[in-house]
Amino acid sequence: MASSFGDLFRVSTFGESHCRGVGAVVDGCPAGMALTEADIQPQLSRRRPGQSSITTHRDEEDRVEIFSGTEGGKTLGTPIMLLVQNTDQRPGDYGEMRSIPRPSHADYTYQIKYGIHAASGGGRASARESIGRVAAGAIAEKWLRLRYGVEIVAWVSAVGHIAMPQPDLSCMSRDRVDAHITRCPHPESASRMQQLIEELRAAKDSTGGIVNCLCRQVPAGLGEPVFDKLEARLAQAMLSIPATKGFDIGSGFAGISLRGSRHNDPFVSKGQRLGTLTNNSGGVQGGISNGEDIVFRVAFKPVATIGLPQETVDFDGSPATLSAKGRHDPCVVPRAVPIVEAMAALVLMDMALQQRAHEQ
Amino acid sequence: MASSFGDLFRVSTFGESHCRGVGAVVDGCPAGMALTEADIQPQLSRRRPGQSSITTHRDEEDRVEIFSGTEGGKTLGTPIMLLVQNTDQRPGDYGEMRSIPRPSHADYTYQIKYGIHAASGGGRASARESIGRVAAGAIAEKWLRLRYGVEIVAWVSAVGHIAMPQPDLSCMSRDRVDAHITRCPHPESASRMQQLIEELRAAKDSTGGIVNCLCRQVPAGLGEPVFDKLEARLAQAMLSIPATKGFDIGSGFAGISLRGSRHNDPFVSKGQRLGTLTNNSGGVQGGISNGEDIVFRVAFKPVATIGLPQETVDFDGSPATLSAKGRHDPCVVPRAVPIVEAMAALVLMDMALQQRAHEQ
Amino acid sequence: MASSFGDLFRVSTFGESHCRGVGAVVDGCPAGMALTEADIQPQLSRRRPGQSSITTHRDEEDRVEIFSGTEGGKTLGTPIMLLVQNTDQRPGDYGEMRSIPRPSHADYTYQIKYGIHAASGGGRASARESIGRVAAGAIAEKWLRLRYGVEIVAWVSAVGHIAMPQPDLSCMSRDRVDAHITRCPHPESASRMQQLIEELRAAKDSTGGIVNCLCRQVPAGLGEPVFDKLEARLAQAMLSIPATKGFDIGSGFAGISLRGSRHNDPFVSKGQRLGTLTNNSGGVQGGISNGEDIVFRVAFKPVATIGLPQETVDFDGSPATLSAKGRHDPCVVPRAVPIVEAMAALVLMDMALQQRAHEQ
Amino acid sequence: MASSFGDLFRVSTFGESHCRGVGAVVDGCPAGMALTEADIQPQLSRRRPGQSSITTHRDEEDRVEIFSGTEGGKTLGTPIMLLVQNTDQRPGDYGEMRSIPRPSHADYTYQIKYGIHAASGGGRASARESIGRVAAGAIAEKWLRLRYGVEIVAWVSAVGHIAMPQPDLSCMSRDRVDAHITRCPHPESASRMQQLIEELRAAKDSTGGIVNCLCRQVPAGLGEPVFDKLEARLAQAMLSIPATKGFDIGSGFAGISLRGSRHNDPFVSKGQRLGTLTNNSGGVQGGISNGEDIVFRVAFKPVATIGLPQETVDFDGSPATLSAKGRHDPCVVPRAVPIVEAMAALVLMDMALQQRAHEQ
Predict the structure, then answer these.
(1) Does A152 contact chain C (CB < 8 Å)?
(2) Is D360 close to A32, i.e. CB distance below 8 A?
(3) Cβ separation of B115 and A239 shorter than 8 Å?
(4) What cofactors does this protein use (chains A, B, C, D) (predicted)?
């Protein structure tokens, strides 16, 4: 189960790679917000493959339709069903993979778990599942922006061994991120990343990378002790994205070797509220947002589906060689950017509604 | 809210640092399992402060009592209430902290969220909250061990800048971990860690560290697509532990720079099942356990409460200097070991019951 | 919120009366069950208006499509999205009702709750919402039948003041129920009910009724103490159907005046299991099924939308007379029969999976 | 499972009849509300057996202690653990019932469900489980009263065949209800009820009854379409109380035979809001409160445990005669009054927080 996320803004996604459609039902969006497909489509288009020379060319428009929950362009407070019809249903493409589970992919574990697996292998592990998340995330993001001015921007900070230098967060924006097809906002690093990706495509190999995310203007007080700490929900959200292997927030893994006297963020007065001088906490203290920027990183492993032949075994345990057919992304992180943003929005939205429910 | 964790093995913890008691209600434990306090106390005792020269001396026995849910030493299938009475209730100790929020602690965010905060500051952010988790985790662990032979071992792999070398996982055990008070199973590293901790104690400063965790004999098929992927729930569970800043699984952050051809885990035949030759996946593929060892890491930040004076502001925004009174752990990671194990057990238990519910 | 029902077999319905479509996402159906639209359509057709001279004529086919979760006619264990496209979208029909809330309908309360209401008035209170339930219920019913042989039959036992005599439950079947358009299996009562309904249609008035439900072959042990007692979940499920006002199980309201010595169901040996001689318990004891027939009743109020002029006030509080336009059912209970069956199936399915999760 | 109730005000009860203690953890109570044991004890005392000549004499004080979640007499917003220690632990009393399941009691179904049952038989089906509900309900009630002026009053309207006449709701109060030990506010009926109960006690037999409940000043807008309609949650809540067999709201079962033109509640202007002239809806329309009084009834079956010998079979299916030892209530409805009130408060509280979360 667990195709649902969130308690008060609950998103239930559906759809496999090659069924009739994919999408989501969003329950818990407050009524009266202006909402049409035009609010959702841009993020879906950013997620779509085939946007550039470095991503796969599966030719689908990913056109979203709102089936319920709005009338006259406004939300009714009722479930919003978002559907993207699959136009490219070709289960036949996956012939060889039916009998040979792809290494480091979901084919084997789905078969073990369910006793059956979709022709396309992983089924729900398909990247197309994220369409529902991104569509739902766009709704959450709009509400958060209108209500609190929240801004969420993610970008690619590393591809393979190439990492960009620490950026100035104050001028980070989606425009800057989208200025390069790698979605790395540091032009020189971006060029090197692109070159690496093209080399790997030629070599029929792949690599991983890191997506960073920044959430501005998040009100203080979001996050629920103790199991729904804001960083805990963000961690769950990010590790639920296919191909992710790690998450850290604020100083993260690098912060462990600092001394407390250096790592602690001293409080300072910032107008009506307290702020912090530094932000090693990443905007969260004790699991609750403190009003500072929320900053975190997500690690993506190298893409599992590669064209290079791999020595493995088939479902029966007999030796086999697998070479993935067709074109595959050598690196998914540029396309993962809007997914990370969407999941961040879903977490913040749910926590914002939780706080409204209980605040004095 | 969210003082509950799990859907089918649900743990609801309660208690602040200085109230009458802390503990948990465990709902969903299958009936008929032998269970007494003796199954729970050992892990609680491993968690307890005051065990060695390098941890704080708060003199409480942390004696757990089972108040309900068992009869004649067997579980009834009904809620198990676990209580540890607080014997050391001294809210008065925290006088200065009432008016000055501790930097990088939960005092400020609790005040903002609730409009009130416990005398002890963070309230539920207190380390004593983890007593309920550890007690509940011991129950989950026992069931998993009896049913599947699951073994969970965590250890300290880094303290500050000192990291132990990659260990041989096959001989990792709690005995080896507990052989040194740092809970680092590499003696030479352990000695250096201990020395660092003692230096920091003398300097009234603190540092962070890393806890690694290994889960053996986890059956394949656990983990629920898409939002309750096994790594997603583990990430939530670990980031819900106080002072954590990061989580990664398998190859984790280090794996991003590998090529797919090198990172993929080829399948091999292992008797009746398929296994993998390498384990960059960390035992999870597509969010579902594959039968290999589950291995992950958790990053802990430097302890926020330090004796060194810190320049900060009080709740009103006026400049203030804070120096924490009393003795404080310079490094929590040795004591975090059983908490990490407990949270891993809670995740695996919940996922195991989920799988029982839905399997064909 | 709460457009979702169930914890382990979770149905999330969506759709208003006049949006693009209505339906449901079903998460938690075990994998490997044969399932096509043909398994679902019959119950939807039984629910559909326009089946006979005594129900409304809204000319929609209610043709269900499975959008996800199956492949090759088998369930994958993943979310099943069921969609019925609305072909009759005429929000304009409801002009007068926009300004005058219909007495005893949901128009007013939706406006108060959401600050907005759908052109069709109640929005989610529309009878069309039940399409998603019935479709999902058909899936649950199939699984329960295949796994345990469960049979669920509901029927009309009263319309207005006309009540049928106590039937012989052993020969109750859907065929017998459907033999008459009132879905009352007692021919003489059925004729009188039909006559009453036709009189009320002519008089532009309406009435209520009672639906009884019988669940056979339900395994003992289903139902979760204490808040998810089987009767508690059934009560919630039934009272969630539009226009319901009451629920009772077994001896129900009539049983309160009996003496315990007369009301208690003595145990008897029934082959391998214990059974009871009488069934005042209605198949449930202590909230848990005991293996006997589950029998309960659901009360439906008179239909609120009537053609007769009603003296009321508009949203501004000014006196107004409302006469509903168009044709309206004078009595919904015949069409409620498959909805009651569906909700019973959803409860039993969820409880069956709960029991699988936790049984020893 | 399901020893928890509510999503945003979540009550998790624990405890069997003869374990160390019973109680509840309440998660989700807003911070800053004055709360001490004195707010909770009165309802617990009303629930307690041994209050009068017509109820059982189990000599326990049922003294509640708040173990967590408050400080200085105010709620902290964190889980409130409420404990009543059992002083009367005598599992030995139930010797004969170990081998002979009591007819219409939970002994048999618990054994089937769990493969084990408590010495006291039903375990969680014990009336003592309701202590946790009543304690939690008192907290909810206080918050609802302070925030909205909500008043909740329940009373006994029928015992056996004796039903009181329709009362004037406007002057119903707990004082009037408690004026007679039967908790029936109609003195003449109350006397007859008492006489019946005493006759049944002498005859070692029992009977059932009806509890009515009235909730005043409930704000309009509470209740969540479609599965958490207010009446649906109330129905679940009431049918989760031991020994209940039915629930109806507003006109209920009696309303089914009315015509719509007679049953509909016309709107009228009531100051700033709309009200209704009649209240057949029972304060709920479309599943959402409309601001009128909420009125419902709960049917309780005759007490199952009786002193009269009953012919039944033991767990092995062999004929046996069972005569319950000790003193048993011939009628539980007077003591059920505060339980019904508590469950109503829990539902309203949870729905109130839901509405706060989502309102515009």
Answers:
(1) no
(2) yes
(3) no
(4) FMNH2
Which token pair is D251?
């006109």
How far is A75 from A33, CA to CA, in rounded Å? 5
What is the count of residue pairs from A and D with beta carbons less than 8 Å apart?
40
Q: Which of B104, B7, B37 is nearest to C353 (CA)?
A: B7
CB of D136 less than 8 A from some CB of B:
no
Q: What ipTM is given for this predicted complex?
A: 0.96
CA B157 to chain centre: 15
Residues of A in contact with D25 (CB under 8 A): none
Cross-chain Cβ contact C357/B357 below 8 Å: yes
Give the whole-number percent of chain B exceeding pLDDT 70.
Answer: 93
Residues 6+ apart with CB under 8 A from A295: A169, A212, A213, A214, A215, A249, A250, A279, A282, A283
HEC states along D161-205?
Answer: CEECCCCCHHHCCHHHHHCCCCCCCCHHHHHHHHHHHHHHHHCCC
Mean pLDDT of all residues in chain C?
92
Chain A residues within an 8 Å CB radius of C13? 79
Beta bridge partners of B225: none
The mean per-residue pLDDT over the stretch C147-165 comes to 98
Q: Do D79 and B14 touch (CB under 8 A)?
A: yes
Please name the residues between 24 and 53 in chain D that touch chain B, using a CB distance below 8 Å.
25, 27-28, 31-32
Of A285, A280, A254, A259, nearest to B306 (Cα)?
Answer: A259
Mean residue pLDDT across chain B: 92
User: Can you list the positions of beta strands (E) in D281-327?
Assistant: 284-285, 288-289, 294-300, 310-313, 319-322
Give chain D's domains with CATH numbers.
Answer: 4-358 (3.60.150.10)
Residue D31 burial (10 A CB sphere; 0-12, 13-18, 19+): buried
Alpha-carbon distance of D182 to D195, in angstroms, equals 10
Q: How far is D133 from chain B (nearest CA, A)?
A: 14
Report residue B198 as tokens.
């003692």
Measure the CA–CA gap between D14 and D26, rounded to whole angstroms: 11
Residue B179 is predicted with a pLDDT of 94
| Residue that wins the pLDDT comparison between A125 and A249 | A249
Question: Which residues of D are less than 8 Å from C247 in CB distance?
Answer: 235, 239, 246-248
Closest CA–CA distance from residue B94 to any residue of chain D (Å): 14
Region of poorest pLDDT, from A52-61, A93-102, B291-300: A52-61
Per-residue model confidence (pLDDT) at position B137: 98
Residue of D nearest to C258 (CA): D207
State CA D310 to chain mean position distance: 28
Task: For residue D347, say if its preceding peptide bond is cis, omega within 30 degrees of 0.
Answer: no
Q: Are strands C70-71 and C74-75 parallel, antiparallel or unpaired?
A: antiparallel
Subunits in contact with chain B (3 or more CB pairs closer than 8 Å): A, C, D
> Is B19 an 8 Å CB contact of chain D?
yes
